[in-house]
Amino acid sequence: MSKSASSGMQDRPSLKTLERRAKAILKARPAYKEMVDFYLNVFRKQIEWRDRLVVEPETVSDQQRKECMKQGQPLIESFDPGIGTESLTDLWAEMKTIFRRGNEVLREAIEKIDTAEDAGDLSPANWLLEQRADRYDAVADTARKIEVEETVLATLTRATTFPHWEEVARAWLSQDLVDRWKRFRCPTCGGPPGLAENRKQSCSQEGLTAATRRFMHCSFCGSDWAVPGLDCPSCGSTKSGDAKYYFATEEPDLRIDFCKSCKHYVIVVDGEKVAGPVHVGLELLTAAHLDTIAQEKDLSPLELCA
Ligand SMILES: [Zn+2]
Ligand SMILES: [Zn+2]
Predict the structure, then answer these.
(1) Looking at residue 11, what is its pLDDT?
(2) Which ligand is nearest to the Cα of residue 261, counting in written order?
(3) Could you point out which of 64, 231, 236, 280 has its C-alpha 20 to 30 Å from the C-alpha of 262?
(4) Ligand 1 centre from 278 Cα, in Å?
């Protein structure tokens, strides 16, 4: 799929950017080595597959898209993502091969998934096609039903669906469009943001110089979009006194933003310290210690207000 000409959004990370960032992260946080080594196989596979994906999202006119952005309605609620079944099941099979080469837990889980598929208890085609950002309950239910570790099923499933949804987002969104989106949920799939990023964005209007803006990244479809100021994504508080953060000098590229009022937090990456576009999967994987810190401070992960 070609990138839309009008798109001014961030490019997707290339293999080179991914590997460069992984190296920098491991230098600063060597404890993640084993995890990063494994997941790089998954991320590399997703990037390699970009040209092979079969994704033909329904054509949405500018007028229709603008209307959805104005109404605060994620595009998935009105339009067909057109994701190809074979493309999903082929990538699923290749991801299973990667997982089988992982540790004992992964190997065992993949064996159970194979058994469930053979017995007709899990149809990968239907399973993958039905995935939506808000369907984590379905993952938990199915994992229980086929007696597989929930985290493995979730990771394998998302590893397969993510690059497909990334294509959908790229076909549907453009910078001028997401600038009309003033919400915290993802404009493409409606999911909650997985990660925030502070990044300078040059302003073409009225000769303004580059200003740092806050962006949200969706871990289901890879969309990213700017959000207003420091408003709280959970309770909507706009009081500047409610916006707080934790920061450690030894990790200048990361911080935890939280709301004093509702006690929800989001992990923030400093986009200026990441050379190239942010890879949401890699950043989340290697910021897991911040989740532990946040939860020790009685903060909860983001939950979006209705
Ligand atoms: Zn999304
Ligand atoms: Zn809040």
Answers:
(1) 84
(2) 2
(3) 280
(4) 15
Q: From the CA of 226, how far away is ligand 2's center (Å)?
A: 18
Nearest ligand, CA of residue 234?
2
| Nearest Cα residue to 28 out of 303, 286, 299, 304 | 286
DSSP H helices in the chain: 15-28, 33-48, 62-71, 85-100, 104-118, 124-129, 136-145, 150-172, 175-178, 280-285, 288-296
Question: Residue type at 303?
Answer: E
C-alpha 243 to ligand 2 mean position (Å): 8
Please indicate, yes or no, whether the overall pTM of this predicted structure exceeds 0.70. Answer: yes
Residues of the chain with pLDDT under 70: 1-9, 202-209, 304-306
Distance 54 CA to ligand 2 centre (A): 40
Q: Which structural domains are found in the chain, ordered by start?
A: 52-172 (no CATH), 180-301 (3.90.1670.10)
